[in-house]
Structures are given as structure tokens and as C-alpha cells.
Design a protein that fits this description.
The complex is a heterodimer. Chain A is of the alpha/beta class. Chain A is 32% helix and 9% strand. Chain A is built from 13 helices and eight strands. Classes of the chains: A alpha/beta, B mainly alpha.
Chain lengths: 449, 164
């Protein structure tokens, strides 16, 4: 081969290898990180969980001056339940309120199945619910974050849709309600991300509750060819006639097929409700438990890459410590049910899902003056050191079993880590970190082990 | 030929004075310039969910929605992330209600022009352009299976209906 011809061919070959290909998602090259699992479920065990009654298992000993300790979260943590002053369970007819603890679901607690970070810190910003939840889904402490304002920096939903080229129905945020700006957490207002990469959202206790029954249940299903085709044709004509200037009914870039699928899910869920087929936890007597029940339906139907579900009932601790204990116990029941459902009812997600559990922030060490029916003091969350103490638990493939990382004297982990950890599990950690929009201390928990 | 310098200076001074005194007076009226354009709907504002639901209900039932119903319906819309899915589902629920007031198919087929004009007025609060009117009439005439419900549904889920 002549020298000139050789150089020409070499240049062509080299060029073909090194010229970067810009994907429609805006990233160079295809996703390079290896996945630890194909699905992630993040449970925001929110509402403000006090460390003393959860990880430390002190029950009444470090809150009410009563020498009674014990573990009321035995699906998540290893430890014996309290034997005295049991108020957190259910109430059999004619017996003391809460006397009957709810039976455990998981024979092996999650701390034995996976890794527990018992001393994680909510290191910045005030310990408010929305800021905590926003940090949980965006990995960024919105120090200036206000209510009625979407997260300032992109959420993990947006990263996944953008960098994994994922569909809208691949990412779900399941809210415990529509208060406290919860519906605003499914995407940020960041100009490079936003609603084009948003998660689908349900507040299922509303969607499928009495209001949903009145305004959605029994909605008409139009024939896809004979009715929907002309309807869409007329709609398209009307939309084309209207000088939009970018104005549309707000949506999340679900495709027509995805929209039809979501409607079908809504219709089916109402039917399953009517036939008592929705997979609610064995005990479902508060909003967190029903939210988790509906979440299992979403998982079963859509099998999302990421599902984030938030709970909040423990926030009753502002006014009733007894109610708080009940909610904590039920939160554990909900988590146990969710993990058991994934492992036993969804073959596609079994052994292919990492579940992460994390409160959004903690609660104060000192009580407020409010007492409940047991004369026990209530607790707020005012950004004291105790309200910055949280934990994070992980379980699933590639998560070391029976491992505790960190201690009170050596805290390991930050509330902002969840986003990077999820990105790490799904293989897009470098993309997320490369954008520089998460907290500068945030790390994958796998890198902290 | 040489003009004395004093006369040149005096001439220049006179010229400058005259130029200064000829400054044109400017009048300002209380009318601002307006750029005249073809019909443009881009300046419309989006309805709030409450506004959308109120107007939708009035269009379909020809009566006002009660405050209690409005609160509940708004909560349902808020509980679903994709508002297009939420509104379409809720509208199709309304369409299943026997109390909804729709024109008869006979009246639509007998006088499609009147039906189209009335539908534009009802939903979009405007008269259709000739092109819009012609397209809609042709569409109705060429689709014997299309009902007034289908047309109403299309208008209710059109982007323009979401703005005012």
C-alpha cells in the first residue's frame, strides 16, 4: 500500500472510531456504566422519623422517661419488640388500643438481607418536609427552596429519562397525597431538563379514593379505531389552527400508547378495587399503607425502572406520640409488604430490584409541650442536631448482606446520596455527577462502603 | 474678493441663530403604536384547573358546577401527573353521564354549519375562520360515524380550549 493511501485509510478508520456520536438525549456515546439492577424502588420513609425510636430501638426510654425499650420496626431491623406498654399495634375488639402488634412479613429483616447506614446526615438546609423530599429526589439541598415551587435542580427521574432514553412510564413518583406541594416533585424547573423528562405521578389515595370514584370511575373508553381516530384527527386540526407559541395542555411526553396504557391502568385499578384484588398490605388502616398497596399495582403493571414512593403518617408526632409509634410500626409493615410483593409477585423485578429506604429528615431530641392520651410528649423537627440524624437502608442484587456502615461517632452517608446511588445502580452515575447539579458531598452509597 | 473676517463671523452667527430657532415642535398623543397582525391567539393565558373544570362543566351540562364538586374534581386532576391524561379521563367520564346536554346527531347532520358555528362559540368563544368552518363541515359530512359527542370531546381536549 502506498504511503499516501495508507494515511488516508488510517485517518478514516481512526475518525470512525473517535468521532463522538451525539444521542438525541444530549449525551455522548451510549450509556457506559454497568447496571447493578434494572429496577430501583426508593421509599421515602418521610414525615420525620426520630432516630431514637427507629434505629436505636429505644421505644419509650429516650422520649418519655420510661425504661421500656424495643424494636417496633422488625421487618426492617433486627431486634426484639417491646414487651410493655404496647400501643402501636391494632386493637382487637374489647382490648386496649394498639395492644396487638402487626405480624412480621419478612422472616429475615432487611438489615440482614442488605446494608444499613445507621448514621446518615441531613447536612444542610432546614429540616422541612418539602425540602427533605426535594433533596431526596434531586440530590441537591434546596436551601432557598420554597413550597409551591418545583425542585430547582433536576430530579433523578429527569436524569433517567434523559440519560437512559427512558419512557415516561419507566419512572413513577407515587405521592401519599396532594398536599404540601407533593405533586411538584415529579420534575424540576431546570431549563435543561424539566417536564419533558418528568416522572408520571399518582396520588393514588385521591385518584382511586372517593373523589376518583366520583369523577373517574366508569369513564368511557372510546374505540381506538372507530372513535379515537376521528377524535384525534379533529383534535390535531384544532391544535394546528391555534397559534400555540409553545402552549399546550401540560403533559409529560407520554406517547399515545403510554397515555392509553395509563388510562387502562386507571380503569383496571377501579375494577380490582371493586373486586378486592388490589394488593394492600395485610393491615391497611392508614394512608401510608394504602399508598403502598397502590404502589404494588403500579409496579406490577408498569414495571418501572425507578419508582419513588413517599409516606408521611409519622408526622402525626407533632401532636401525638402514640400515633407516631403506630405510624412507625405501619411504615415498617408497608416496607415489608412492598419488598415481599416484589420478590413474590413480580417475576420481572424479583432479584433484579434494589430497594432503598430513607427518611427525608429526623425529629428533635427535646419534646414540645403537647401530650397525648397516654400523657406522652410529642416532638417537632426544628433543625436541631437530632433532626439531622437519619438512616439509609439498601437491599437487592449487588448490595452486601448483613452489613452496617458507620456509627454515631463516625457517620457515613448524606441525604443527598440517594440520587447518586440510584444513578449508580442504573449505570448513569458519571452522567449525573458530570452535570454538577447534585450536592458536592453527594456520593453513591456503594462508594461509601 | 476677500471678505473681511468680521463679516464672515457675523454671517455664521446669524446662520447658527436661524438654525437653532427652526427646531420642529413634537407633539405626543395618548395613543401608542400598535402592530396590526392577523388573528393571533398566542397571547392567551392558560386556565387554572378550577377555571377549566368550571367552564367545561358549564359547556357540557349547561349549568354551573357546585363548589363542592369543583374542589373534588380539582383534587382528582391534581392527583394525576399528566394533565392531558387526567382531563381526557375526566371528560370521558362526563360523556358517560346521561345528564350531559349534547346536540342531537340529527340536528348536526341537518345543519352542520350551524352546529360548527355553535360549537366554536361554545368552546372557543369565537367564530371560526372560513377555512376552519369548511374543514369541520367537510369532516362531519365525510364521517358518517362521527357524533356530536366526538366533536365536543375533540374541542374539550384541544389545546386552545385550555387557554383564554
Amino acid at each position: 500500500m502506498k504511503r499516501r493511501e495508507f494515511i488516508k485509510k488510517s485517518a478514516l478508520v481512526t475518525g470512525a472510531i473517535t468521532v463522538p456520536y451525539i444521542l438525541p438525549t444530549g449525551r455522548l456515546f451510549a450509556q457506559t456504566g454497568s447496571q447493578k439492577a434494572e429496577h430501583v424502588v426508593l421509599v421515602l420513609f418521610a414525615g420525620g422519623v426520630r432516630h431514637q425510636e427507629s434505629i436505636l430501638q429505644h421505644y419509650l426510654a429516650e422520649s418519655q422517661d420510661l425504661d421500656i425499650e424495643g424494636n417496633i420496626m422488625y421487618n426492617m431491623l433486627t431486634g426484639d419488640a417491646p414487651e410493655l406498654k404496647v400501643v402501636y399495634g391494632t386493637t382487637p375488639a374489647g382490648q386496649q388500643p394498639g395492644i396487638q402488634p402487626i405480624s412480621r412479613i419478612l422472616q429475615t429483616p432487611l438489615d440482614k438481607q442488605g446494608t444499613l447506614f445507621p448514621e446518615v446526615r441531613f447536612s444542610k438546609a432546614g429540616t422541612g418536609h418539602f425540602v427533605g423530599l426535594s433533596t431526596g429526589v434531586s440530590g441537591h439541598y434546596g436551601v432557598t427552596q420554597g413550597l409551591r415551587q418545583r425542585p430547582i435542580n433536576p430530579t433523578i427521574f429527569e436524569y433517567i429519562r434523559r440519560y437512559m432514553n427512558a419512557k415516561a412510564t419507566d419512572v413513577w413518583f407515587v405521592g401519599n397525597g396532594i398536599g404540601n406541594s407533593t405533586p411538584l416533585l415529579n420534575h424540576s424547573d431546570h431549563p435543561d431538563f424539566g417536564y419533558r423528562y418528568a416522572a408520571n405521578f399518582f396520588a393514588p389515595n385521591v385518584t382511586f379514593g372517593s373523589k376518583g370514584v366520583e369523577f373517574l370511575k366508569g369513564f368511557k373508553v372510546y374505540h381506538p379505531d372507530e372513535e379515537l381516530v376521528p377524535i384525534r384527527e379533529m383534535q390535531a386540526f384544532l391544535n394546528n389552527s391555534f397559534n400555540l407559541a409553545g402552549k399546550e395542555i401540560p403533559h409529560l411526553y407520554n406517547t399515545d400508547e403510554e397515555k392509553a396504557d395509563i388510562k387502562n391502568f386507571i380503569r383496571t385499578t377501579f375494577e380490582r378495587l371493586e373486586n378486592n384484588q388490589v394488593s394492600f398490605p395485610p393491615v391497611t388502616d392508614n394512608g401510608d399503607l394504602s399508598t403502598i398497596g397502590y404502589t404494588t399495582e403500579i409496579l406490577r403493571w408498569f414495571k418501572p425502572k425507578l419508582t419513588v414512593v413517599n409516606m408521611s403518617s409519622v408526622d402525626s408526632c407533632h401532636g401525638s406520640y402514640t400515633s407516631y409509634l403506630k405510624s412507625l410500626h405501619r411504615g415498617d409493615h408497608a416496607v415489608g409488604h412492598l419488598w415481599n410483593f416484589i420478590q413474590t409477585q413480580i417475576p420481572e423485578m424479583k432479584d433484579n430490584t434494589v430497594m432503598i429506604i430513607q427518611p427525608e429528615h429526623g425529629r428533635n431530641y427535646e419534646p414540645n409541650p403537647i401530650t397525648d392520651e397516654n400523657d406522652w410528649f410529642a416532638f417537632d423537627h426544628d433543625s436541631d442536631a437530632n433532626s439531622r440524624r437519619i438512616f439509609t437502608q439498601m437491599v437487592g442484587p449487588n448490595v452486601p448482606a448483613n452489613l452496617r456502615v458507620g456509627s454515631e461517632l463516625n457517620p457515613v452517608g448524606d441525604a443527598a446520596d440517594a440520587v447518586v446511588t440510584i444513578a449508580d445502580i442504573l449505570g448513569i452515575k458519571q452522567d449525573v455527577l458530570g452535570r454538577g447539579l447534585v450536592d458536592f458531598n453527594a456520593m453513591s452509597l456503594f462508594d461509601r462502603i | 474678493m476677500n471678505m473681511p473676517i468680521s463679516r464672515i463671523l457675523a454671517f455664521g452667527l446669524l446662520l447658527g441663530t436661524l438654525a437653532g430657532s427652526c427646531k420642529e415642535e413634537q407633539y405626543t398623543y395618548g395613543v401608542e403604536d400598535v402592530l396590526v397582525q392577523p388573528v393571533d391567539l398566542s397571547g392567551k393565558k392558560s386556565k387554572t384547573p378550577e377555571q377549566y373544570l368550571n367552564i367545561l362543566y358549564a359547556n357540557l351540562y349547561q349549568k354551573a358546577m357546585s363548589a363542592n364538586q369543583l374542589v373534588k374534581a380539582t383534587d382528582v386532576i391534581t392527583s394525576i401527573g399528566d394533565k392531558q391524561v387526567a382531563y381526557e379521563t375526566l371528560i370521558s367520564k362526563f360523556m358517560n353521564d346521561p345528564n350531559i346536554i349534547l346536540p342531537t346527531e340529527e340536528s348536526m347532520r341537518n345543519d352542520p354549519e350551524a352546529f360548527v358555528l355553535e360549537t366554536y362559540q361554545r368552546f372557543l368563544v369565537r367564530i371560526p375562520t372560513e377555512a376552519e368552518k369548511t374543514w369541520m363541515i367537510n369532516f362531519i359530512n365525510s364521517h358518517p360515524d362521527v357524533t356530536p359527542e366526538h366533536v365536543y370531546y375533540s374541542f374539550a381536549i384541544a389545546n386552545e380550549y385550555y387557554f383564554y
